[in-house]
Structure to design on (787 residues):
């Protein structure tokens, strides 16, 4: 017997079917901030992160019956968040390509500053995650989940659909690539405390 | 023995998994090194430490991890919130139809033909079925004459009381009641004011409802901790606090406490808190489960079961507190393993193998009576009843839909299920609600009669068990003018009929959910919303008292409530929909008359 006002999603799924409205309430109540923060870290744009957050909850409500209660709700909803953000990034890339094509011949090439260039012009304290944005998507994703959101390797594996060994490999490759990029950077002094 | 760079990298990240939730801002590599090493087992610790001594690049990985975590918190603060309110997200996500698997046209056609044939066979060839033994046909519960809806003017006759929060602000957690219902422990994250640092600390405080004052409790602890997973009330009114690698025992607002860390030979964490205060507490290390006894001040490892990695084990105490169960995934992952431990000696008495589908988590169980345990998987309906045998050991009896007289086809309408226990008479009930167009059918199996009764109930019915616990089967009312009409049905006394009440004072609330809790006398109810807290007479629906939530300048959204264990007070947790950065909330205590 329980009071539902402070119960978590797994406890409520023990009592209610996935279509029960209270589950949406509790899901949003408990994961709104975490989903938004993850979307923000993946998309780097607050407006897009807002859209991704709403889209994630709409999908989660629709597919809640497929979640197996007691397994790991955070990993499940983060997986939806990651897929939603990937989809938004693809649309964003398509929009950028289209814009580039439309601008061809009307603007001087090289006159615009690319987002990545903008990112590296920020102050040194935030440059590390700007460097991360240059990594291949799979390496970037495991780094953001593991180091940006403190998710354990096993949970990163659940979210990305890779096995833990693969997650370690991607992380290892990401660290090696980051170290290489850092060596080229005169601003960062990561080893100052060593 | 030397290890490869790759192995050192894996050990670093294994240690990170174990030692940190969220890193403090400005995490120093030297601090992180210490934390990672202390989280690893002795062999791994020695190997990694030795490797780091020889490998500057690997120490560079450690520094890189510290920097990544620090900068992640600066770039995406834990308090970052979407501008869209909780209510608007709920509204957008509500009403989503569940996704269905796509069927080919020929599959649909085949199914329709098969269904029609089955209907014809059932209707013409087969004799009409009799009800199964032990199952009664649905009975519409007679309605007790409803009180007429009256305007909220009924509240005008009551004194107007406005509550002031005892804590509010950014990152205030909902609290935990002490067993005597006097104190509430709660946590709050704060930034260091020390010049040049921007570390995050967690402070725990205890609110004393007698004095109206709050006292600090240990710490501040570096990092982010929550009372719900770090604080354990003991039966004698002291509190055990586990934060980082420290174990602190304190008497709130009386003494500064003592450190118990030395009692344990390995770092320990709470093992699935149940929030029922006892003299004994089960803790989980990496090598062993530990039993700490506050009456003797001793801690002992429990010989036998080894904690699983991650928080996948579950601990459940028996009603008397004389035994507890450690529920785990079986070592071969082919099912579950339940280890029963005698609390007095800390020795394992039984180890039960439960066949089940592969699972990442141990099962849930409800220890219904001292000798009867109901084991189930969250979200599933089929369970297992374990009964202690006079000759020793436990019998295992499948408890499924057929026990309740349920047809698998009806399960698409599954609404809720739960158990109810009448400890006085040694009877337990298992109830399942099936949704219908105008309400639902409630199937109630009684172990006393071995029979299932079926009741037709309207929506928004509170089902009350013999001890006063309840399962609300309500639908949140998203309309601008919710009727707030509720029905009450008592499992232990179905002949009392169905009561209907109208709840005043909560219309116009900012958040559709109206939370409710029963007082154990089953005569009074407490409702909570952004409009306030109301105490209602269950028989008539008349308001007995109403408290408004004051002392907050911004809009209040969701409001949760938690009755104190002695039912004398209500802890109210109000989410403030602040325009400022960060999660804001306010805590109130209501003194019940």
């Amino acid at each position: 017997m329980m009071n539902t006002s402070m119960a978590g999603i797994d406890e409520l799924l023990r009592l209610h079917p996935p279509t029960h409205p209270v589950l949406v309430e509790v899901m949003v109540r408990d994961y709104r901030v975490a989903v938004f923060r993850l979307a923000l870290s993946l998309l780097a744009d607050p407006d897009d992160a807002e859209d991704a957050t709403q889209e994630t909850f709409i999908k989660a409500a629709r597919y809640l019956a497929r979640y197996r209660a007691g397994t790991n709700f955070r990993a499940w909803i983060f997986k939806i968040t990651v897929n939603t953000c990937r989809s938004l990034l693809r649309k964003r890339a398509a929009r950028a390509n289209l814009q580039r094509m439309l601008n061809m011949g009307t603007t001087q090439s090289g006159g615009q500053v690319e987002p990545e260039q903008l990112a590296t012009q920020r102050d040194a304290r935030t440059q590390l995650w700007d460097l991360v944005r240059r990594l291949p998507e799979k390496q970037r994703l495991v780094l953001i989940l593991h180091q940006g959101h403190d998710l354990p390797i096993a949970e990163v594996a659940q979210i990305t659909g890779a096995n833990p060994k693969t997650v370690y490999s991607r992380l290892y490759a990401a660290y090696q690539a980051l170290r290489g990029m850092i060596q080229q950077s005169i601003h960062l002094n990561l080893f100052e405390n060593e | 023995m030397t290890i490869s760079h790759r192995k050192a990298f894996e050990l670093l990240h294994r240690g990170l998994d174990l030692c940190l939730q969220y890193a403090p801002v400005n995490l120093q590599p030297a601090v992180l090194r210490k934390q990672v090493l202390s989280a690893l087992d002795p062999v791994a610790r020695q190997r990694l430490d030795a490797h780091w001594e020889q490998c500057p690049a690997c120490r560079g990985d450690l520094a890189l991890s510290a920097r990544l975590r620090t900068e992640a918190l600066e770039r995406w603060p834990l308090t970052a919130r979407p501008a869209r309110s909780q209510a608007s997200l709920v509204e957008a996500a509500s009403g989503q139809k569940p996704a269905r698997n796509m069927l080919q046209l020929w599959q649909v056609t085949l199914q329709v033909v098969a269904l029609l044939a089955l209907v014809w066979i059932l209707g013409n060839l087969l004799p009409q079925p009799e009800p199964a033994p032990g199952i009664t046909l649905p009975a519409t519960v007679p309605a007790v004459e409803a009180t007429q809806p009256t305007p909220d003017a009924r509240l005008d006759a009551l004194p107007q009381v406005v509550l002031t929060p005892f804590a509010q602000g950014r990152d205030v957690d909902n609290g935990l009641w002490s067993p005597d219902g006097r104190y509430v422990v709660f946590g709050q994250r704060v930034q260091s004011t020390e010049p040049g640092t921007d570390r995050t600390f967690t402070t725990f405080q205890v609110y004393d409802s007698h004095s109206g004052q709050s006292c600090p409790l240990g710490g501040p602890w570096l990092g982010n901790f929550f009372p719900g997973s770090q604080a354990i009330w003991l039966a004698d009114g002291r509190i055990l606090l586990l934060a980082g690698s420290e174990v602190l025992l304190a008497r709130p607002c009386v003494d500064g406490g003592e450190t118990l860390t030395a009692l344990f030979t390995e770092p320990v964490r709470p093992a699935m808190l149940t929030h029922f205060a006892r003299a004994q507490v089960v803790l989980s290390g990496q090598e062993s489960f530990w039993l700490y006894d506050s009456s003797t001040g001793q801690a002992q490892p429990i010989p036998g079961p080894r904690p699983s990695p991650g928080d996948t084990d579950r601990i459940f105490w028996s009603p008397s507190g004389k035994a507890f169960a450690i529920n785990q995934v079986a070592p071969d992952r082919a099912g579950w393993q339940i280890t029963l431990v005698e609390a007095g000696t800390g020795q394992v008495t039984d180890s039960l193998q439960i066949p089940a589908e592969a699972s990442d988590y141990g099962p849930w169980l409800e220890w219904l009576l001292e000798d009867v345990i109901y084991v189930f998987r969250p979200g599933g309906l089929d369970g297992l009843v374990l009964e202690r045998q006079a000759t020793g050991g436990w019998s295992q009896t499948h408890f499924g839909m057929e026990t309740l007289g349920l047809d698998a086809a009806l399960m698409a309408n599954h609404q809720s299920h739960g158990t109810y226990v009448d400890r006085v008479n040694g009877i337990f009930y298992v109830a399942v609600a099936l949704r219908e167009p105008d309400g639902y059918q409630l199937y109630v199996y009684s172990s006393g009669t071995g029979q299932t009764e079926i009741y037709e109930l309207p929506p928004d019915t509170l089902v009350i068990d013999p001890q006063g616990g309840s399962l609300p089967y309500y639908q949140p009312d998203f309309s601008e003018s919710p009727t707030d009409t509720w029905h009450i049905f008592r499992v232990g006394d179905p002949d009392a009929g169905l009561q209907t009440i109208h709840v005043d004072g909560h219309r116009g609330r900012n958040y559709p959910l109206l939370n409710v809790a029963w007082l154990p006398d089953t005569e009074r109810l407490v409702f909570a919303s952004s409009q306030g807290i109301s105490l209602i007479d269950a028989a008539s629906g008349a308001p007995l008292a109403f408290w408004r939530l004051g002392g907050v300048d911004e809009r209040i959204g969701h409001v949760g409530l938690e009755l104190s264990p002695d039912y004398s007070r209500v802890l109210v947790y109000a989410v403030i929909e602040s325009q400022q950065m960060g999660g804001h909330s306010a805590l109130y205590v209501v003194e019940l008359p």
User: Anything to note?
Assistant: The first helix of chain B runs from residue 5 to 19. The mean pLDDT of chain B is 78.
